[in-house]
Design a protein that fits this description.
By secondary structure, the protein is mainly α. The protein has one domain. It has ten helices and two strands, in the order ααββαααααααα. The longest helix has 32 residues. It is globular.
């Protein structure tokens, strides 16, 4: 386990040393989203009987967790590949399972730290209720692990920074922004309601929001089943790529 803990510690230090960029900046971005949207819609919109700002905060928290978990693992791998320092991670006798676990846990930790920061800052502007705390913790961990694993896949696949940027701009951003962060899917036309159900990020955000308010667009058990299934599928794919050394061991 020494290799695992060393790699995990290295990945944590990597984002912690530049916390102003990796933690403070995303918290500020989420706060701006809240201030702008709540100022415009607070007096006009209630979702499931919940004031709009209280509805919006859990979505912003989960979006921050997901985006930062993905960014941490993907950027770390692509930087190591571009600079050639990935060889210092591959040469030691670290199993591919430990390699995956270290990157995913460190990335999920960054996502959770940013999410907690967003929650602490935005909670001042909304009347939040922690109706089901275990669901909050469960979906936060599941979402962080899922997007961190997807970040590892993106980091392995990408050979250049622009490829990684394309992965983030054309996949991660649409999945998160079109997942019910800012709205309930029942406010959409029927076609887009059904389309949203094919977005796994929707289930993560909806289940996470259920933990705060006790209401959701779909059953939290359905959201949990979809989230766990997607995480296991992504984990299996990642472990297969690492075992084969795809784009890592030439």
């Amino acid at each position: 386990m020494i290799g695992f803990w060393t790699l995990f510690y290295k990945e944590v230090l990597r984002f912690w040393k530049v916390g102003f960029q990796t933690i403070a900046a995303p918290v500020l971005t989420a706060m701006l989203y809240l201030l702008i949207f709540s100022h415009v819609l607070e007096a006009h919109v209630r979702v499931h009987g919940i004031p709009y700002s209280a509805f919006l905060v859990p979505g912003l928290v989960m979006m921050s967790i997901l985006q930062n978990a993905f960014a941490n693992s993907s950027s770390s791998l692509i930087q190591s590949k571009v600079t050639g320092s990935i060889v210092f991670v591959l040469l030691p006798p670290i199993s591919y399972q430990a390699f995956w676990a270290a990157y995913v846990l460190a990335a999920a930790l960054r996502g959770l730290v940013v999410g907690l920061g967003v929650l602490l800052v935005t909670a001042w502007f909304a009347d939040l209720h922690f109706a089901e705390l275990p669901w909050i913790l469960l979906f936060a961990l599941l979402g962080g692990g899922m997007l961190a694993t997807l970040g590892v896949i993106a980091g392995i696949w990408a050979d250049k920074f622009d490829q990684l940027a394309a992965f983030q701009n054309f996949l991660i951003m649409p999945l998160t922004f079109l997942s019910g962060v800012f709205y309930s899917i029942y406010s959409l036309p029927a076609f887009w309601q059904e389309t949203s159900r094919f977005n796994p990020v929707f289930y993560l955000i909806d289940g996470f929001r259920y933990g705060f308010h006790g209401v959701s667009d779909v059953s939290p058990w359905t959201s949990l089943a979809v989230g766990v299934s997607c995480f296991l599928a992504l984990a299996a794919l990642t472990l297969t790529l690492l075992k084969r050394g795809y784009k890592l061991r030439m």
